[in-house]
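Standup notes, structure subgroup. Blocker cleared on the zinc ion input:
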Amino acid sequence: MKKLLPTSTAGSLPKPSWLAQPETLWSPWKLQDQELVDGKQDALRLSLQEQQQAGIDIVGDGEQSRQHFVTTFIEHLDGVDFAKRETVRIRDRYDASVPTVVGAVSRQKPVFVEDARFLRQQTNQPIKWALPGPMTMIDTLYDAHYKSREKLAWEFAKILNQEAKELEAAGVDIIQFDEPAFNVFFDEVNDWGIATLERAIEGLKCETAVHICYGYGIKANTEWKKTLGAEWRQYEEIFPKLQKSNIDMISLECHNSRVPMELLELVRGKKVMVGAIDVATNTIETAEEVANTLRKALKFVDADKLCPCTNCGMAPLSRQVARGKLNALSAGAEIIRKELSI
Ligand SMILES: [Zn+2]
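Run returned:
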């Protein structure tokens, strides 16, 4: 019998201090050349071991091989000039200097496939791999070539599909697309965002997921959250269309958020990765707090479709805090498994 409530993380975990500056988001590498290649693999092994020791069921690479969840992927593509930078507003929230699309975008060679193969060699557990979603990719660039967000998203969707197919062949069980932009541009999501995501998963036989959160625990995001009012109903705008899409799983921010749990009813039938760990605080949840979030979610998600998870990535946290949170996630899920088996 398949294990009930399999636990997983949204993706990133802290990097060791010898690989990159700790407790810093998107911090640059400390190693170079072959040392960097080896260092990333060593870090992946450590990250995997920490997930295993905490009892996490669906494991990942902890995103040890990437600096940024979007730009590391884009760096490997043709058509984007990283020296030519423009300031744009990311997710309508904060300004950032970003690279420019200067020509047709294409992928000449695989980006993460070798890393995924390496992870596959280390474990027999189910593995999940994260890629940026098309809409979040275009939102992190200045487009001087297509001059159309939609057109560029379709191009990225084709590229992501090539990468995803190779990740599947490398033995990845779940491919997750990170789409925090889905929580901001509702009209575009419904017009073409979900359609481009479906293009990215076309022909895949492995499970597919989309991660839609309120962002890492950085200042711009926590400030934005303060403006969202008593109830965060953003998910309501896009869930009906997502429910009808071909995506298998949806990863959401739940614990400590003001998302009304009943919104999950709108995606009934999909697997839901319920965020039961807050990544914007160093306070480690108790097992009972995790269990409480899961209990609330179970009113709207069938038990065989619920996967306890973190709200978002834990890269900016200390290793000690992240470890504590992984343990709490496992322990909380175990409480509910016992309750369900009575
Ligand atoms: Zn996230």
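Discussed briefly. The domain at 33-66+111-136+147-341 is CATH 3.20.20.210 (TIM Barrel).
Next: hand off to the docking folks.
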